[in-house]
Specification:
5 helices; alpha+beta; 246 residues; 2 domains; Alpha-Beta Plaits; 10 strands; ten-stranded mixed beta sheet; 21% helix; homodimer; 30% strand
Chain lengths: 246, 246
């Protein structure tokens, strides 16, 4: 019996998110990988993911693990699974971990990237990979605002109402907004993220970018612990789970 | 009667190239735009494209024109057409041109971009937007090789055999290869390009990048005027028609 850790990249466009659903007609990343693993190992495998990404969200470095009796060498699993996976999911790496390793519980931090296409016309090429926002964004103000997120804060204002976690306190290690040609890119790393937290932060930073909010308003939004004070949740298609830390 | 010039961006993934085909079951960019223009104007419209991109090739600044009796203001055409176009084709701009303007005959040059994803594992996110090449490419050598293309040359060696143009002499104004993270990007501008010329050049530069050819071999390949001397044609999905000059 061994515990295999997978590093996964996927295009979330055609999936209803990571998590398997009771309705089998719904295509999910977890469900797809589990089906492929069953074919490869002949076992009924349960894959544990590091987080539950929403429909349309992408991942460049998603981590998952599963227990198997299979004799396939750990580092060969990636080839075996990739052969049966659809082309929008790729196993970048597979290796054996300690039997106690758990992709979700052992995770100590994550980095997300959000891409905004900031120009007049929408892009057919990036239509599923960036959020198109027409009005000119003040990237410098957005970056200034992002700095107020760094540190240990109660992020209740940046949490979707559906969420029911015990604590809303999270520590943000780094946050940055910068422009590359007509893309505005937001990078954030933290010890954990609440439901929709990154997308609500982006929605709020966009309000800063168009002058509707000031960078320092982030301080009072955090203090308010009120979802109504923050901006709207930005669309899923601009979001990438970039790296997971253990 | 007026002549409308369109600036078009498209994701070529789901199309059999620009040019309309006799078989109506085949989806083409030209056919799709003509159908949409018929809906918008009520006329049977013929759209003239600046070039015939192959299946899977993308465009960021394709130019086309059409003659119409429609009363829609020239600069409003983009909104009217975009409303009925599928999301993988976008009209960036529309404006009235001199009645003699012809998107193909008036074109004096073009710029193409080719993207190679140069890393071990393939990318599900870029699967339709870059050519995945595993072996490490020597970008400096590739760029050195590209410099030999600049100037007026007979490009017979870089032309697909199917082609039957009068002259194979073209002038390359600029050519450059550089890396951005794990992408190797090739940019080339010239007064014209033969059938598959950019893709054959990329295939040849890749051979330079893996040490199979030397940068200065480009000189003898050009002189040979023999398709067999150049490399294979690189896949369509990495190619973008970037800008067209008039």
């Amino acid at each position: 019996m061994k515990n295999i850790k997978l590093l996964i990249e996927y295009d979330g466009t055609n999936y209803s998110g990571w998590q398997k659903q009771i309705n089998n007609n719904v295509s999910t990343i977890q469900g797809t990988i589990e089906q492929c693993l069953s074919k490869v190992t002949g076992e009924k495998v349960e894959v544990i993911g590091c987080s539950r990404t929403d429909a349309g969200v992408h991942a460049k470095g998603f981590v998952a693990n599963f227990i198997t009796e299979s004799r396939i060498p750990s580092d060969k699993f990636k080839y075996a699974i990739n052969r049966v996976l659809p082309e929008d999911i790729v196993i970048i790496d597979s290796k054996e971990e300690n039997i106690n390793f758990h992709a979700r519980y052992c995770c100590i931090g994550k980095r997300y990237i959000y891409k905004i296409l900031n120009r007049q016309w929408k892009s057919p090429i990036l239509r599923n990979y960036a959020y198109h926002f027409k009005d000119k964004l003040d990237v410098e103000s957005m970056n200034k605002a992002a700095q107020y997120l760094i540190g240990k804060h109660d992020f209740t204002s940046f949490k979707s109402s559906g969420s029911s976690v015990r604590s809303s306190v999270r520590t943000i290690m780094d946050a940055k907004v910068y422009a590359v040609e007509d893309l505005v890119i937001f990078i954030i790393s933290g010890d954990g993220f609440l439901y929709n937290m990154v997308r609500i932060i982006v929605g709020t930073l966009i309000e800063v970018g168009i002058g509707k909010k000031k960078p320092e308003d982030i301080v009072s939004i955090l203090e308010a612990k009120d979802r109504q004070k923050a901006g709207a949740s930005a669309p899923a298609r601009g979001l990438y789970l970039d790296e997971v830390f253990y």
